[in-house]
Specification:
Elements lengths: L6 E2 H6 L2 H8 L3 H13 L4 E2 L23
Antiparallel strand pairs: 1-2
Bound molecules: zinc ion (ZN).
């Protein structure tokens, strides 16, 4: 099994605006509002690209070798 690395919403909320802008190429103020809403909804992780079956609370479900690139 292989697991993807996911960014934690908590960690992102602690990051400064410059870092958020670089990571998401978006207005950090808007992003913070979205992240806070996700956190309030009980979500913990931000999905990474190409993670099938991603769960916002538990993160990557794990992938067996045949479906990873
Ligand atoms: Zn994954």
């Amino acid at each position: 099994m292989k697991y993807c690395l996911h960014m934690r919403i908590d960690g992102l909320l602690w990051s400064d605006d410059t870092a958020l802008r670089l990571l998401f190429e978006r207005d950090p103020r808007e992003l913070r509002i979205e992240l806070a809403e996700k956190k309030a909804a009980g979500e913990v992780f931000i999905p990474s690209a190409g993670c099938e079956g991603f769960n916002p609370v538990t993160g990557c479900p794990g992938h067996s070798h045949h479906n990873t690139k």
